[in-house]
């Protein structure tokens, strides 16, 4: 299993539109067989900062996700909303067991 | 619901001991009624860096967690293992619904 945290910093006027576009993407992404979770959370002390927690079941799942129409739409929709470039950090799972993600 | 990400940077020689102590704490923490998840993940490109994802069901749950014996044991056990001070970031949940965490 592969866990990716995507850190997103959105321009103030784009916060609501970013949430809308990302919820649409998340609801479609969790239907992909290779995706166990696709969480969206908002930083409490800075609502312009978000974290996408993407939990992939297989090594090929991230590439499969990037080939979907919902990913392409999201990527193009949110591109002008960024206050700074997105960053991603990859993690290995230690707890709980993979099946509980 | 309150989501807390605790970023931990461990000294190289303490990595295995940190994992052991934190797994013990995580297995006990997920038994607390106020805790929905207590995840431990390890950064792929820097195995000395970990993230604890603590998902609390209620505003009082973080304080209740810090009163447990397993938290106190973990805190004291890992204190000398830190390469730098821990940092925590708080988030609000946007997706999925609270019950699916």
Give a description of the structure.
The structure is a homodimer of 101-residue chains. The mean pLDDT of chain A is 98. Chain A has helices spanning 15-29, 61-66, 69-78, and strands spanning 2-10, 35-43, 49-56, 82-95. Chain A is 31% helix and 40% strand. Chain A is globular. In chain A, α1 (15-29) runs antiparallel to α3 (69-78). With 101 residues, chain A is α+β, with helices and mostly antiparallel strands. The first copy, chain A, has a domain at 2-49 and 62-83: Alpha-Beta Plaits, CATH 3.30.70.100. The first copy, chain A, contains three helices and four strands; from the N terminus they run βαββααβ. The first copy, chain A, has a four-stranded antiparallel β-sheet with strand order 2-3-1-4. At the A-B interface, α1, β2, β3 and β4 of A face α1, β2, β3 and β4 of B. β2 (35-43) of chain A pairs antiparallel with β4 of chain B.
- Listing every helix as H and every strand as E from the N terminus to the C terminus, the arrangement of chain A reads EHEEHHE
What form of chain A results from the Cα inertia axes?
A: globular
Radius of gyration of chain A: 13 Å
**Helix/strand class of chain A:** alpha+beta
Q: Strand order across the biggest sheet of chain A?
A: 2-3-1-4
List low-confidence stretches of chain A: none
Tell me, rounded to a whole number, the average pLDDT of chain A: 98
The residue fraction in helices of chain A comes out at 25-40%
User: What would you call the quaternary organization?
Assistant: homodimer
């Amino acid at each position: 299993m592969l866990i990716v945290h995507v850190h997103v910093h959105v321009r103030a006027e784009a916060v609501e539109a970013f949430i809308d576009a990302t919820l649409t993407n998340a609801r479609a992404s969790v239907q992909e067989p290779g995706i166990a979770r696709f969480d969206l959370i908002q930083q409490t002390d800075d609502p312009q900062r978000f974290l996408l927690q993407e939990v992939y079941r297989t090594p090929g799942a991230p590439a499969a996700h990037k080939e979907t129409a919902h990913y392409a739409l999201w990527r193009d929709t949110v591109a002008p909303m960024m206050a700074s470039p997105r960053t991603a950090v990859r993690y290995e799972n230690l707890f709980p067991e993979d099946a509980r993600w």
